[in-house]
Design brief:
Structural class: alpha/beta
CATH topology of one domain: Alpha-Beta Plaits
Shape: globular
CATH class of one domain: Alpha Beta
Number of helices: 38
Strand content: 5-15%
Helix content: 40-55%
Largest sheet: 8 strands, mixed
CATH superfamily of one domain: Nucleotide cyclase, GGDEF domain
Length: about 900
Amino acid sequence: MKSLPTGTVTFLFTDIEGSTRLVQTLGQRYGDVLADHCRIVRDAIAEAGGTEVSTEGDSFFAAFNSAPAAVAATVAAQRQLAAHTWPEDVEVRVRMGLHTGEGMLGGDNYIGIDVHRAARIAAAGHGGQVLLSAATHSLVERPLDSTFRDLGDHRLKDLANPEHLYQLDIAGLPSEFAALKTLDARPNNLPVQLTSFVGREADIAAVSDLLQRARLVTLTGPGGTGKTRLSLQVAAERLTGYADGAFFVELAPVTDPRLVPSAIASAIDVREAADRPLTDAITEALRDRELLLVLDNFEQVTDAAPLVSELLSAAPRLRVLVTSRGALHLHGEHEYAVQPLSVPDLAHLPAAEAISQFEGVALFVERAMAVRSDFRVTNDSAPAIAEIVARLDGLPLAIELAAAKAKLFGPEAILGRLGSRLAFLGGGARDLPARQQTLRNAIDWSYSLLPESEQHLVRRVAVFVGGCSLDAVDAVCGPGELGLDAVEGIEALVDQSLIRREEAAHGEPRFVMLETIREYAWERLEDSGEVADIRKRHAEHFTAVAEAAEPELTRSPEAIDRVGDDHDNFRVALAWAIETDAGALGLRLGFALWRFWQQRGHLREGREWFDRLLALPSAADRTAARAKGLTGAAGIAYWQNDYGAAQAWYAEAEEIIRGLDDPVWLADALYNSGTVAGLMEDMATVTAKLDEGLAIGRRERDDGIISTFLGAMGYMAFMGDDLVRARELLDETLAAAERGGERRPIAMGHHMVGQVARLEGRFDDAAEHYRQALRFGHELGDAASLTEPLQGLAAVAIATGETERGVRLLGANDAIRERLGGGPPPEWLRLGDPLAEARLQLEQEAYDRAWAAGQSMTVDDAVAEAFNHPGAAEPQG
């Protein structure tokens, strides 16, 4: 990692003026132009002793320990750029800005107001121009062949106080430029911002692009997402693009739509006359002006939307930028949904020095430093900061309120107090509007604007965790009871930015509520007295959803994914069953989910749920629900290799099922009991269970049951070294599975046939069957089932001299089992000890290297390694 200077540092920002136009002019040749430009600027920085902090496109950010060195770098760069031979009809003009201040690090980059000041100084200039702050000017004597020109005070975008600027006039180069691109360049009433603007570069660019193509752009999003601040920043950035400037209209204090014309008139300095309507006066004033009008907080005066259309029709050079919880629904409107700031993935945190690359973290750190000058990101505090901004959904208002607490608390203490975000995050800056001084007020502002029926709906939607489908809203929230159509009701909440629509990878879209908003809505639900009823509906609905999906979980990866989408909702339903002693519902739900838990590596969690469910007083009765719960619990225990618990639970389940007069279910129970008996080496019991199960299949004429028990018998023959009988039965089982077309039985069939082929010494056949087992298991998304053929394939590799590859596969298999918390029973694999054999064949260093490589593999990596063999077809899916 590069070493960045600290202490007193001079910052340099540069970029090409009109780079978009150059791309359009040059096409593919622009790449060569950009490369020449980068080489010239980079060489000038390096030769002057500067450090290149970052580059993005045609922009450079560099830091210098010396202000004179920084100025020398700009002189050298501008001279080289001017002297360079560019393509015909092309002029590359680079603007540069310098400011000297405190070099404070936040991870691997600079943070603080001085960096923003330098960036704003550069942005105020034109191509070929070098601008300096007074701080830098004071540290530099007159450079050789150059002079300083005093440009006076200028209001820079998003900086509270005017900045005194100087221009560096370089002998022989242009020194006359247009007026600086500052807030003094055009008429405006944009309010002075007392804090720097952090992040949102992509949003600024996207909204600016929209304003070039559309005359009405509406920024939408829930309270606290920073719509107002983004609109002001866009207006400031684009100010010089409007000959008659940009004007900000604050509508938050206006609750009567009839007063909107007065607010607009006041902002653009139009006087009301007694002899004509105010709207006519505004229209007349705007008719010939090229102007950007920013209408802030339009959500409470939406009935005034026709006025916006009227103004746009009358003034062809007018552009309007609106902020609102929801769109205005006007012809020609372009909506831009303002998303929360980027936050780290808590499951994959970057190193502490890289964490400030996330906008949410950068905002928290900068605002925390504003209230506590010694605040820094450290290895110890970085995880807490990451979790703070993630739990606050990346909402700028929430992050700023949390950062203000850094005056009293460290990041770990702030995180510990976020149990209730709404209660803790108060006490915002006193000069903010009341609705923004606490997070609760910001959300309450949106809630209060809803009609009563939609208020009912939004608080009921709070019962869902991790989002939901429209069907779930209809079933649980009862919009019909509220006089609402489900589609229209959800559309209204989406329109008010209280929930978000997200595309699902499969099927219908999902609707998600930010956790900060959900906490508020949940409080309102508790106040309403409806919690008990809505939670009961929620649990019953998701139990029905899980039971409908359960038969598909061994057949369809899409079904597994759909269950995964609602995993958090299933958890809420299970918790409700335990809290209310609804044992039958909880056991049914647990049974429906156990295959999902097994296939997606949630074995420990599934075991914990079953332990709690089976201990409920209402779960003690010997009912079909208890039999299901016992079967699911035993299945989890089996994959955890806890065969004693699995045997006991399967035995009790079988006893209950024998009294239910359901032969198909009894056959399944016999298969389960027989399987575990085999692991416990109770061969008499195995034989009895399998014979009884096969008899049921024949009596019921059920080919699926017959195939299952023939396969089990074939594997028992394999375990008993009767390989001829085993091959006969297992080949028949695989053929039946392939006729049925379901992935899981096919994968199991290939694995079992591969086991026999391996023991017979037919290694090529064995390897191909193992790969087919991997192919079908991987297509199903069942990581647990892959561990058996992975081990078999590794044993074949070691036996045939591909020892390092075999060790890699065993290392990958071990890592997968560790992540899953278990796997299939090793006792069945009859591998001997292939690792011991590998140790005899390899030097220790080679063995350790291969094992470490396998340990680092993902499931996809392991499958790819398995197919990395001459003649092996690539896996599909």
